[in-house]
Design goal:
Layout: H1 13-41, H2 54-88
Helix pairs in contact: 1-2
Amino acid sequence: MSANSPADPPIRRIDRILAFMALGIAIASVLCFFAIMISTAAGMTRDDYSTGIWPIVSVVPLVGLPIAFLLILTLLIMSIVRRGKAGRS
């Protein structure tokens, strides 16, 4: 099942790049989200998040997860179009 059958179109480089970008951004966002949860449980207050690297850590999940979703959606649409073209020929 893991091997491509002869009828499947080959996986392009852009597909792999989009997949790894989406995965990397999603993982970074989830890690930052857990860092915020752990630091809040450890007793950090709202004022502590305004200094150091915490402003970046708090913004990454807000921006990263929608970007990862859009990349996955783009990858899905490109895959559907690629398979549709391969099915017609």
